Amino acid sequence: MVTVLDKAAGMDLPDGAQMSRKRPLIGLTRDELAAELCDFGIPEKAVRMRASQLWHWIYLRGVTSFGAMTNIAKDLRAEMEARYSLERPAISEEQISEDGTRKWLLKLDARSEREIAPQIECVFIPEENRGTLCISSQVGCTLACTFCHTGTQKLVRNLTPGEIVAQVMVARDRLDEWPQTGGDGERRITNVVLMGMGEPLYNFDNVKAALEIISDNEGISLSKRRITLSTAGVVPMIERCGAEIGVMLAISLHGARDDIRDQLVPLNKKYPIEDLMNACRNYPGLSNAKRITFEYVMLKGVNDSLDDAKKLVRLLKGIPAKINLIPFNPWPGAPYECSDWEQIEKFGDWVNRAGYASPIRTPRGRDIMAACGQLKSASERLSAGAAKQQAQG
Ligand code: SAH
Description:
It contains twelve helices and 14 strands.
């Protein structure tokens, strides 16, 4: 059964367009928050203490109003309430799949009079021993990978750190995961993957700031080992990703030969496989305990032969790696088909025999179009003209 909740179904949702113009605090790093409090007039001696208090309420307790911050004086709370906001983006739609997968469509604030409020999606995938939240880093994407639905959309813009962090906040709100809300205290979101819309390494600074906040151990406290950043292979940024962000890395490989990968991931023409593999070999922190995940979407007759499997194994030689075989998720008008199941298994067996764990990712949330590469955005729903105008704006 699919449950769809929206305004019509009576959810009490704030209207994104009407969201307050107060300054949002979600998404400020600790230093930025302290600087903000200085500007606000908090005496210098007290800034660190106040910043810590706010951090605790916002990211550990998940409060949505200053009124709840009981260790801050009432007058000060009221002044903060007047100036600052802890609002999350409005949920314009929530869908729950038969298999428990949940998808939220979030309406972001328009950043100018002319911008149509963009929408992004994030998806929660519960499994037996963990729960993975898949978040987006951009609205749309510039990469145009030929098998990916997002690739057919125009990039509207990078997400801000606040918009990236807010995806986790909204998911925790809806999963009742904050201690404040009387939830059972159990962690439902145990892992975060940047595998939604966009190329995270093209939005490096904002992704870095957001992941600092999500992994801060006095807040949401998700270990960086449980955060995976997936890239199509922006080679010059890979080293910085390891050194400055320090999260787990996934590479959308999908082809073991340049001619095939050029077709599937056009970015390969700029950064071919050999350069990509060298960057992987040098990924800071790489070890057998901290492997790189290579994603490989199974496309019938394109990249799924045993010869491809052999080449893949050869390519990864010497790199501590996991291989994720992803059955292709078809979308209307897609120029590919998913490989036959038998072929996927044969491919997987070969890779396994070569010593690589190669789980075949079970499709999840298909009934709500929550699968990889199927996340839609407002940009896609806009008429071509409006989108063009916006991109030029
Ligand atoms: N730009 C980043 C993150 C977004 S894509 C990247 O390329 O890694 C997240 C994952 O979903 C990638 O591995 C992508 O190749 C995969 N994917 C996209 N469309 C898909 C589809 N239709 N079927 C299966 N996997 C898909």
